[in-house]
Every structure is written in structure tokens, then in C-alpha cells.
């Protein structure tokens, strides 16, 4: 049974994270993965090239040697495992899963705060503090997105949860109550 790329990404990312925790290398591996993500964004087809069966193995091996030359230890070994199983085209999903687990381990909440107008620096900081406390995290990093349609208030989306405190939503609730 062939696994879909998201399942593969989750499994490899989880395995790497668990190994990183066991070896007390979570921070350094995270930094290496950020570098890898940047390389894959600069060369978007790199994963496909390294997973392509139409290329000769020696051609892919040469590209792989150049890629891993900037890494050592656990990350170098991980890259060779991923390469040997022809999963380099799923590497970004693996990095995403590692990052999600890393942030959870660090008690860092990542998400968005949707507002009708841009937040001031102080409002943004207060919003992050309240969101972190409300959702049980030590700190939050929320990206402020703007949507005038929400009228006012805020909609926070983080870790598959949505807190809708928008005026638009409150008006919808009032309308529902009045129509009952």
C-alpha cells in the first residue's frame, strides 16, 4: 500500500523530531531544517529532481553530495535516508511536521489574527499574550491579516482552532436570535 505524501511527511517529520529530542539536538536540527527549506524554496524542483527515476543514479548522487555538504550528523543521515527511499520530493512536508512538533515542544503558538484594521505594536503584543494564555501556550506568534469585512473585533486561527470574536459574527448571532 502506497502512502500519500502527507502521511509520509508526518511520519518522517515525527521520527526526526523524536530522534532530535532523544539526542538533545532539537534546536540545531531545527536550524538546519530552516536552511534546507530555504534551499528548496530557491530551487523549487530539487525534490522532484532527486526523486526522479528518469535520471541516472550517478547524476542524482552528485546533486545529493552537494546538498548534504553543508550538513553533518543527524541531518546528513536523515537526508540520505529520505533520498534512498526516493522521498526527497516530500522533504518540505517533513520539515513542516518537524516544525509543528518543535513549536509545540517550545510551547509556541503560531497562527493568524484577522482584524478589520491593522493592529498597533502594543495591540499586537497584547493579542499574542491573550491568545497564548487562552489556548494554553507560553507564547504566541500571530501574523496580523486585514479584512474589513469582519467590521471589527478579531478572528484568531491557530493549531486548527478558530476563536471568532468579530463583530460580523456577533451580528450574525443577533440576527439568528431575532429570527427565532
UniProtKB/TrEMBL annotation:
One of the record's GO cellular component terms: plasma membrane
Coiled coil start-end: none
Subcellular location: Cell membrane; Membrane
Keyword vocabulary terms for this entry: ATP synthesis, Cell membrane, CF(1), Hydrogen ion transport, Ion transport, Membrane, Transport
Gene3D superfamilies: N-terminal domain of the delta subunit of the F1F0-ATP synthase
Topology term for the membrane: Peripheral membrane protein
UniProt main location, coarse: membrane
SUPFAM superfamilies, per the entry: N-terminal domain of the delta subunit of the F1F0-ATP synthase
GO MF: proton-transporting ATP synthase activity, rotational mechanism
Family label: Belongs to the ATPase delta chain family.
Role of this protein: F(1)F(0) ATP synthase produces ATP from ADP in the presence of a proton or sodium gradient. F-type ATPases consist of two structural domains, F(1) containing the extramembraneous catalytic core and F(0) containing the membrane proton channel, linked together by a central stalk and a peripheral stalk. During catalysis, ATP synthesis in the catalytic domain of F(1) is coupled via a rotary mechanism of the central stalk subunits to proton translocation.
Name the record gives this protein: ATP synthase subunit delta
Gene field: atpH
